[in-house]
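Email to the structure team, subject: Uroporphyrinogen decarboxylase model.

Hi all, the expression group asked for a predicted structure before they design truncation constructs. Nothing fancy, just the tokens so they can compare against earlier work. One-line instruction: predict Uroporphyrinogen decarboxylase, return tokens.
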Amino acid sequence: MASLNRFLDAVLFRKEPDRVPVFITGTFLVPYIYKLTPYEAMYDYEKVIKVHLNFLEDFDPDYAISPGSINFGKILELIGFKQYKWPGHGVPPSSVYQYVENIYMEAEEYQWLINNPSDFWLRAYLPRTCKIFEPFKTLSPFTDLWEIILYPSFFVPFGSEVFQETLMQISRAGREALLWTQKMREFSQQAKAMGYPLLTGGVTKAPFDIIADTLRGTKEALLDMYRRPELLKRALEVLTPLAISQGVRGANLSNSPIVFIPLHKGCDEFMSDAQFRTFYWPSFKNLIEGLVEEGCIPYIFAEGSFEKRLEYFRELPEKSCFIRFEKTNMEID
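Reply from the structure team: attached below.
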């Protein structure tokens, strides 16, 4: 609790902490320090947990870096994940994983996303990004099940050989995910017993970045600001409460109010100030305010330069969040 109180004292300006809180981040930082390859870090639970515990003993940070942030290769293999290349699957064992940007939502599918984001995710987005979900594109919308006569025909696809194998593969992935969860829980308990709590409780994303990173790709999302601005803005409105909910659920589940939010396409390099003010800031501000209203503390990582955006952060609730800047001169009047 001492380190948590130290952090809250500093971030919320409750009082001057006994010293500056030290929070070290970096997905593969710990494996690199202890000469573990990215491949080993993603495939060997015992090794990656051991080096993270060694890190706590050797460096005495205020908070534990969880090996859970690395992700684990076997689960990605089982689901046939297509959005990343990872060690041994597209990149060498010595390399960290790399994102594969693509168009995972077509322009004409904006309205589908707006009308029913869950249906779009289940029957369009996931079949494109995970091999395990490819058969789901053959399903009818679950909202078709509004009367007894519709149930038999709805379940026909589940009886196919392809779907039967899919369900078995989902079960395999689920068992591996349970093992991963057990290992991460054990690490968390050991770290806490050593006096090092995990800092981040939940994670979410700026609505514009969900569009630009995950669905449309950078180029298409930026072009959408010109070609279909109203559809883009409506989609951002729809995604905002979903992003708030995800952050809050993670914080509640982990019993930590800190919600991590990386910022990508809102930096100075990707859009003008006018575009930021119109397309990025409104939904992002609503996201932060929504999290704060639910008792969360947003932890914002501003990737890229945000020197031209600093004034916007004044609009956020006072003493509500903390921001880490990658390469921003933080001089502000």
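The mean pLDDT is 92. The domain at 200-333 is CATH 3.20.20.210 (TIM Barrel). Ping us if the truncation boundaries need rechecking.
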